[in-house]
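Hey, I'm writing a tutorial for new members on how sequence and structure tokens pair up, and I'd like a real worked example in the thread rather than a made-up one. If someone can provide the structure for the chain below, I'll link this post from the tutorial.
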Amino acid sequence: MMLDGKKIAILIADYFEETEFWYPYYRFKEANAEVTVVGAVNGVFVGKNGMKARSDIGIDAVKAEQFDAVVVPGGFAPDYLRREPAVVDFVRRINEQGKVTAAICHGPWLFATAKIVKNRNLTSFYSIKDDLVNAGAYWIDQEVVVDGHLITSRKPADLPIFCKTIIEKIAKKQ
């Protein structure tokens, strides 16, 4: 399969957007990636609409070097995730290592906190556009924006192209 031997971390916190978590989770597994759900702590998290998901591990037990990519679903979870220094450092390190660093919807909030958006092209849910522009990003309103290894999308409707782009980018690094 396309992603044999590749490891992807999907970050999670309360109030995650369920479709932006589950769609990539199963899509990456379908492509034969090893998917690890990483929370600020190991536990059960409740999504925006009440659906629950369990992390596989807490952030303190992982290192960026263990993964080929990180994916940040949206919802309000990224606001909780960016309050955790270890999560911010993890995302920054994945980015510094030139690995796929992807986010959808409100996910790029975490990228702004990690200070990885300055002079980068990206997109997001429109309500955080000003936050990203103020952090130095060039915001573009389109389904998916790729700037090197940084991949972003706007909303659940963009999930098919978002996941396809992530899979293609990780597969090219083999």
